[in-house]
Design a protein that fits this description.
Blueprint (H helix, E strand, L loop, with lengths): L2 E4 L3 E7 L2 E8 L1 H9 L6 E8 L4 H8 L3 E9 L5 E7 L6 E7 L19 E4 L4 H9 L6 E5 L2 H6 L1 H8 L4 E5 H8 L4 H9 L5 E5 L5 E5 L2 E5 L13 H16 L4 H18 L13 H14 L5
Parallel strand pairs: 1-4, 1-8, 2-6, 4-5, 8-9, 9-10, 10-11
Antiparallel strand pairs: 2-3, 6-7, 11-12, 12-13
Helix pairs in contact: 1-8, 3-5, 6-7, 8-9, 9-10
């Protein structure tokens, strides 16, 4: 099933206690697309970049058979840039610099050949733009949405309107508490699901993820790693693995949703092992399936 991904493409300058990486390819849609490409046959991207987004950057996406015809290149413009420094615990970070550049005027127009896409993934952009994307898609079979504190605080009503049209909502624990107004994640999940999305995933970083559906609650562990170099993009990489599996299996049941959460977690665990997209751009399915099996073994009990 084809996947349409709409979000940011960026260059990141990343500092962690374990090293740094400058001018690193990033952006929400980049991580999502690369991660999903290991599972899905057809991935289409819509976004905007400047003329500093060179052939080598497009080639990295093309090497994963990702369709980039929907990426607009603004001549003499500069691509969105972000710089950040992570603290020692890797759970908190300081934003050192943000330059929206061409992304400041991003106005997504979905190419005609993309408008029949079955699965739509909306990265954490302005909820008004997310809704505009959905008005251009004919009959999406599934809509997945991500967001961030900035939009929850700055455009809560627009976000709630968009959520009425969403099937799967992915956010982290602090965002869930902020949106729901309740500190308890189970209560938060009920409140948010009443806003529209019947499938909700709350990411908890090093403590795993929670899946809420009509069938109940599923808790996925985080993978225990000795070396974590860079958590940038891990959440978007999770989303890519999650939706990639659903696209591959072709059905949405509680069991497949749970498997999708584990595949998403597996992909995110690879992402943090190197800086930027370096690790997730160079995997193979044997590695991925082995990591997925390791997740299954983490909580397995033979009775």
């Amino acid at each position: 099933m084809p996947i349409l991904i709409v979000g940011s493409l960026a260059f990141d300058d990343i500092e962690t206690p374990f090293g740094s990486s400058m001018n690193t390819l990033g952006g929400s849609s980049t991580y999502i697309a690369l991660s999903a490409s290991y599972f899905a046959d057809k991935i289409q991207m819509v976004g905007v970049v400047g003329s500093d987004f060179e052939a080598e950057h497009f080639q990295l996406l093309h090497d994963r058979d990702i369709d980039t015809k929907g990426i607009q290149v603004i001549e003499d413009g500069k691509t969105f840039r972000w710089a950040g420094r992570y603290h020692y615990d890797m759970n908190t970070r300081d934003t050192l610099d943000t330059q929206l550049n061409v992304f400041a005027d991003f106005d997504p127009h979905i190419p005609h050949q993309y408008q029949d896409t079955g699965i739509v993934v909306l990265g954490n952009i302005d909820p008004e733009l997310q809704l505009k994307v959905l008005t251009q898609i004919k009959k999406p079979e599934m809509v997945i949405l991500d967001t961030m504190n900035f939009w929850i605080e700055g455009k809560p009503e627009a976000l709630k309107e968009t959520l009425k049209h969403v099937d799967v909502f992915i956010l982290n624990d602090s965002e869930a508490r902020l949106l729901s107004g309740d500190p308890n994640l189970v209560k938060s999940a009920r409140i948010i699901r009443e806003m529209g999305p019947k499938t909700l995933i709350i990411k908890k970083g090093e403590h795993g993820a929670l899946l809420f559906t009509n069938g109940g609650i599923f808790a996925a562990p985080a993978f225990p790693l000795e070396s974590i170099y860079d958590p940038t993009g891990a959440g978007d990489t999770f989303a890519g693995g999650f939706i990639g599996h659903l696209s591959r299996c072709g059905e949405v049941t509680d069991m497949e949703l749970r498997k999708a959460v584990l595949y998403g977690s597996a992909m995110a665990s690879f992402c943090v092992e190197k800086f930027g997209t370096e690790k997730i751009a160079a995997l193979d399915m044997l590695e991925i399936e082995d990591r997925y099996d390791s997740f299954l073994e983490l909580s397995r009990i033979d009775v």
